[in-house]
Amino acid sequence: MSAASTARRIAATVLAAGAMVSVVALPASAHDGDHRRTPKVEISAVQADSPGRDNRSNRSLNAEWVEITNTTRHAVDLDGWTLKDEAGNTYKFNDFRLAGRATVRIHTGEGRDTRTDLYQDRRNYVWDNRSDTATLRDDHRRVVDTESWGRHHHR
Fold it and tell me: In principle, which of 95, 109, 114, 122 could form an S-S bond with 62, CB 3.0–4.6 Å?
C-alpha cells in the first residue's frame, strides 16, 4: 500500500468521524436554542418564622418572607403569577418584571414595593412556622416551583 493511499484512508476516516460527531451533537445544540422552554424562576429562600416574638407588628410581619430568584440572564414578566400557602392565602404579582439573575423578596406586611422587595400588605402572618408549602404558579396556573418545610418537607 502506498503512502498516498494510506494518507487518503486516514483523511477519509477522520472526515467520517467528524461527520458522525456533528450528527450526534446536532440534537443537543438544537435543544439548547429552544426558546419555548419555561424561564427558570424558583423559590430560593423562605423565612417563615419571623425572628423575635410574633406580635403582628408590621416589622415582625415583614420579617416573614419568601424570595423568588430568576436564574436566567433575561427578565421574566411575573404579571399574573401567584405565590400561595397551604391555607389558600394567595399573593398575586401585578405588573412586575424580575430582572435577569435577580431576586425579589415578598414580605407579608405592609410597605412600598421596589424592584427587590414586594409587600402583601397583610395584617396577619401567612406562613406556618412549623410546617407549610409555598407554591409559585405562572400566569397559566402551572406550578413553577414549591418549597416545603416541617412535616411536608420533600426536598
Answer: 109
